[in-house]
Design brief:
Four copies of one chain form a homotetramer. The first copy, chain A, has nine helices and no strands. Chain A starts with 16 loop residues before the first helix and ends in a 5-residue tail after the last helix. The longest helix of chain A is centred in the C-terminal third of the chain and has 27 residues. In chain A, helix 1 packs across helix 2, helix 5 packs antiparallel against helix 7 and helix 5 crosses helix 9. Chain A is 71% helix and 0% strand. Chain A folds into two domains: 43 residues, Homeodomain-like (Arc Repressor Mutant, subunit A); 138 residues, Tetracycline Repressor, domain 2, CATH 1.10.357. The first copy, chain A, is an all-alpha fold. Chain A binds a DNA duplex through helix 3.
Chain lengths: 205, 205, 205, 205
DNA sequence: TATGAATGAGTGTTCATTCAT
DNA sequence: AATGAATGAACACTCATTCAT
């Protein structure tokens, strides 16, 4: 479920050609019409390839979705992880870093964000379970961060889980309403959502 | 789009025969597998009816979805509207009323909430446009309420639209993670989200 | 397969109501779209009756077609027969009478003529066989008439069967191209086709 | 609408694989049962292919009919055109050429003739309009020829349109009654109908 | 790397027909 | 004399997938 054609192995970062055309097309159309609303023919047509070429790179439609969701989830988690490693120890700054990363991701990889959110349920159990670890790891970043802030008296929310869910839901929703070229700059948007998040956890200095 | 075969309107909550078995089954399965992931045969089977009986009551799969989404959107809007009419003039109380209504709806009509949210994009343009008025009316309730609170000095958020979106997203998300019998009572949950919403709009007494 | 409701008996010439509405509707739509292109629902709708009412009068769609074709074939044959009985013994006049009757029928019962011609093949064997007698009787009128004309030296065609087929085909085709209100009067048209027929049989005085 | 899958044009008489098996089967069954009386499964079965293979070659049942009718109409027109180009300038000979060509076509491509005649009305408007030009061109061959014969004093019919319709109807009808191996040779049949046609236009030397 | 030709199961939908009322 | 509700079989068509080349 990574980058080489079905039965082979090869460079982990394929350039050009078939594979990328396919995942690119799949990304766009899955986002537009959803997994079940998309046919493998639609994808092949958009990729400018034959139907069979698609099967050279991916053994099934489900595999294509799983590969997509995997890349997205992985990418998002890594960005979060890196952002936290680059942040100081201070809870408010760490929360800000996570919110900023998330907002940026929802905006700059808007299409992908919606796929990971909406098509998750269309993963077959096997794939879902495999990726669930990554997902929970991302959740744990939020959980730990908020727990730490509460423990150290920086945050004062009585129900950290609800606070976390509210923050994450608010950030995720951006991918659904944001329209590029809509006037707001990304840093400004990130700042606004950071402020909201800090209010949700009842941050006091 | 309600109780009579193929066309006509009537009571939204009929009892008995074919029509209800069908919408009931559709509700469940659309929620489980999504519109495109559901076959009309699945619905008929679950409803305990023949495939053709389904077409006696609804002229198409799309009509069935539209009827469902319409009922849900309508019902939600009416509850919000009523809650606001029964609330006092005080911004915080009005916000609380709206949040409470929404949380309750997301919990008590969890399945329906997810349909209205996730399957909206699978409505054909004609149906989407027809229902869009209702949707915008619901949004306006939030917009006006928050604007009023800001104007009267009860709320202090600099970006009311972002505040609104955050609150609504947080409330809506409940339908995705809430599991009945999960320990939290509904009033308690409503209270928690009211608190979160008041913090998001930066309510001060 | 005549005029009374399926299981009952009654007046042989039903007036008004259901039965006539149905056959009227069937006539029109069978002519427009053909037997297999017409659904029983189309007929019921056009007749302003429920689907089931149709089954009160006719046990099946096939029966409806057969009843229609029977009436048409019968009516045509009777008109031919009467015309010949009213004609003199002279071959040319008898041929003229038959042509005139046929032309008139194709024009005045245009829709019916096309049904009898085009939908004949959609009769089930049983019905086709039953009506074939009538059809052959009509053919025999032409055959005998022409044979008589030849025998008596009025007609001089070497191949009477081909002459007959040509005349009949030419007359029948009128139902396909004739448009009411198209400038030609019926008597004029009949006269033209009589002239053609007389030339085909090589009539000489 | 010929040899390549779904679109493209090519030789009208290919040999071999899928496409021809399909059009061959469609020809036979459309002729036997009519367009609406034929199911796409019947065709696939007769062609010895799967249902889906049929859709590899033709995008729809309607396309299949249109392709068939187009080939037939085109072929017939070309034969007429060639026959006239090879004929002398003499009206009677030209009429004979056209009648002979038509009779031959109705006999040798009997099945196809009936399809073009009977299924024309089952073409969707778009296809019908597209092919109508060809149809009218064929009609014009007759019209011009007869007008010329009248102008030059070779034909003496008072109503050339009726003469033409009668001749064409007579020739076309052959496809409905002719049975191969019925005793008459094709040249003999063509000669008989030529004689009839010349009588219809009242040809005199 | 890719394609053209094919397939079987499944899609949404319509069909003629039935039956209790 | 007519209807509302239902059915099973069939309809045209699309699906994800395969395989020889």
């Amino acid at each position: 479920m990574s980058s080489a054609p079905v039965e082979g192995s090869g460079s982990a970062v394929p350039r050009g050609g078939g594979r990328d055309a396919i995942t690119g097309a799949a990304r766009t159309i899955f986002a537009e019409r959803g997994y079940h609303g998309t046919s493998i023919r639609d994808i092949a047509k958009r990729a400018g390839l034959s139907l069979s070429a698609l099967y050279y790179w991916h053994p099934s439609k489900q595999h294509l979705l799983a590969a997509l969701v995997e890349e997205i989830t992985h990418d998002y988690f890594q960005r979060c992880d890196r952002a936290l490693r680059e942040a100081t120890d201070e809870p408010a700054e760490r929360l800000a870093a996570l919110v900023r990363t998330t907002v940026e991701y929802r905006v700059s990889r808007r299409v992908e964000s919606n796929i990971a959110t909406l098509e998750w349920r269309n993963l077959e159990p096997e794939n879902r379970e495999r990726l669930d670890g990554l997902r929970r790891a991302a959740t744990r970043l939020w959980v730990d961060l908020i727990a730490d802030g509460v423990a150290r008296g920086a945050f004062h929310c009585a129900h950290p889980d609800d606070a976390r869910r509210a923050i994450v839901a608010a950030c995720n929703a951006i991918a659904q309403w944001y329209e590029p070229g809509g006037g707001i700059t990304l840093p400004e948007l990130a700042e606004r959502y950071t402020a909201i998040a800090l209010r949700i956890v009842d941050h006091r200095v």
